[in-house]
Amino acid sequence: QVQLVESGGGSAQAGGSLKLSCVGPGYHFSTCAMGWYRQAPGKEREMVARTTTLGRSSAYLTSVEGRFTISRDNDKATLYLQMDSLKTEDTAVYFCAACPDSTGAFTDWGRGTQVTVSS
Fold it and tell me: Which neighbouring-strand residues pair with 73?
């Protein structure tokens, strides 16, 4: 099981930026597809962005496309989420996830980092 630790959350004004990081153990990290999810109060967890093992292909939630960018540095065993043009509706706990199983569901999760966007 991969141990993932997120950081970089905090508070921002609408229109501002934050960059999240997720660190995992090196060898296993570099063999897994990874993603970012979020869960707002009273809402279900949703996929924000995901990327392939080498980061050559990514997919985004429609509402964040063009504003958020997922990237990874396998040498540093780190996954990133650059969040620009933040909106109040981006407020949520953001989770890092790794290693999807045969159904596509991620099997390893971090504990999350809070992102709060105010108007």
Answer: 78
49 touches 64 (CB < 8 A): yes
Q: Is the dihedral of CA 39, 40, 43, 47 positive or negative?
A: negative
Q: In angstroms, rounded to a whole number, what is the distance separating the alpha carbons of residues 24 and 88?
A: 29
Give the residue among 75, 86, 117, 94 at the shortest CA–CA distance from 35: 94
Helices (H), the chain: 26-29
Which residues, 6 or more positions from 111, have their beta carbon under 8 angstroms from its beta carbon? 5, 6, 95
Which residues on neighbouring strands pair with residue 114, listed in sequence order?
Answer: 93
Which residues, other chains included, contact 102 with Cβ-Cβ below 8 Å and sequence gap of 6+?
none
The model's pLDDT over 51-68, given as tens digits with 9 standing for 90+, comes to: 999 999 999 999 999 999
